[in-house]
Amino acid sequence: MIIYSRFNPNRKKQYQLTTAIEKRGNKLFVTKTASSKNSITHLNQIAKNNEKLIKTHFLPKCAPLIEKLNDRLVFQYIKGSSLESLLIKSFLSDDKIRFEKLLNYFTLWLNNNKTLPQFLSSEFIKQFGNFKSTKKYVCVKLGVVDLNFDNIIFNKDIPYIIDYEWIYDFPIPIKFILFRSLIHLYSSLWQYNINQFIPLSNLYSKYEITTQEKNDFIKFEYAFQKKVINKNTLPKFSEFKKAYIDLESKTYTRTEITINHHYIKQFEIAQKHSFHLQHDINFLNKEIANIQQTNKQLKKHSQHLQNDIDFLNKEIAITKLTNIKLNTKIKKLKKTNQSLAKQLNRITSTKAYKLWKKYQIFKKNLHKQLNPL
């Protein structure tokens, strides 16, 4: 039974996957399914990424891959708290020490997989933008670029990476990975005034992300998004960059207003409707996921039926060919019978046959006279 599903239609077709949480008996599993034949290559790459993480002993550990099918991967469901949820909890409880301690853990994991300072590889430049760089970066050996805080789950104090779609065979700068993760967190929390808790600019300073590096990282990210996201959904670079820069000081100002009791009741009713509507939406999402699964099964049954039809058509064609051969033989036999009938007719019309016939009658009559009883 599918209890949650997610699909991103803004991706290019070759990267479109459906992620779902399924319940089988008393156990939960995470599945990733290719949305079409176009995205099977990308799906297979995730299975290869699993092998790379295990082979290189990357920390955090990766969520185990349990089953690999033609168009589907099944992973163990990791139960626990995400690093993002722990950071949010620290923010909501105004615990700056705990918040920064969690970030330090994250950077420690990155540094456990680090390289010596090095120039960006030609493979990196090809993937993340055509530019010239004279700067050396400390990198993660295996290019695990997508380490957003919600991709890391703590299970019994052991951290796991639960989503490893984007891994490259070339090193990725540690600061760039950290920059992406911080941007992802602050993008989801700016309206709760996280910049008043710990400004994003303070974290850039703490982890020595310079203005030049920040500008470079925005270019890297834009180039990455261009490869993955449909062109019509990606903003212009100037707008893209502005959103990243503004995030450093972005806050939300709440306006105090007086609301009468009538509006409060109306708001409460609206909230209830909203809750029921969300419940209906979740139910519909599950139904859609189940329908998609049923469609796949129907396609498989349809293929089996088509195979049976093809087999029957072949049998019909063979039968028709056999009938043609039999009809040909029947025609030959008819011609032979007609020829024999003509020959018999010629024989019966001869004087010899007529004399022989008279002789047979005479012989029969004589036999009767000699043997009257």
Characteristic terms for this protein:
alpha+beta, Phosphorylase Kinase, domain 1, five-stranded antiparallel β-sheet, 373 residues
Walk me through the structure.
- This protein has 373 residues and is an alpha+beta fold.
- Among the domains are: 1-77, Phosphorylase Kinase, domain 1; 324-370, no CATH class.
- Helices cover 57% and strands 15% of the residues.
- It contains eleven helices and 15 strands.
- The strands form five sheets. A five-stranded antiparallel β-sheet has the order 1-2-3-6-5. The chain has a four-stranded mixed β-sheet with strand order 4-13-12-7.
- Strand 2 and strand 3 (27-34) form a beta hairpin.
- Helix 2 (83-92) runs antiparallel to helix 3 (96-112) and helix 8 (211-228) crosses helix 9 (237-246).
- The longest helix is centred in the last third of the chain and has 88 residues, at 261-348.
- It is elongated.
- The mean pLDDT is 88.
Q: Cα distance, first to last residue?
A: 99 Å
Would you state the CATH class of the domain at 1-77? Alpha Beta
CATH fold-level label of the domain at 1-77: Phosphorylase Kinase, domain 1
Compute the gyration radius: what is it?
A: 40 Å
How many distinct beta strands? 15
Mean pLDDT: 88
Name the CATH architecture of the domain at 1-77: 2-Layer Sandwich
Q: Which stretches are poorly predicted, pLDDT < 50 over at least 5 residues?
A: none
Spatial arrangement of strands, main beta sheet: 1-2-3-6-5
Structural class: alpha+beta
Largest sheet data: 5 strands, antiparallel
- In which range does the helix fraction lie? 55-70%
* Shape type: elongated
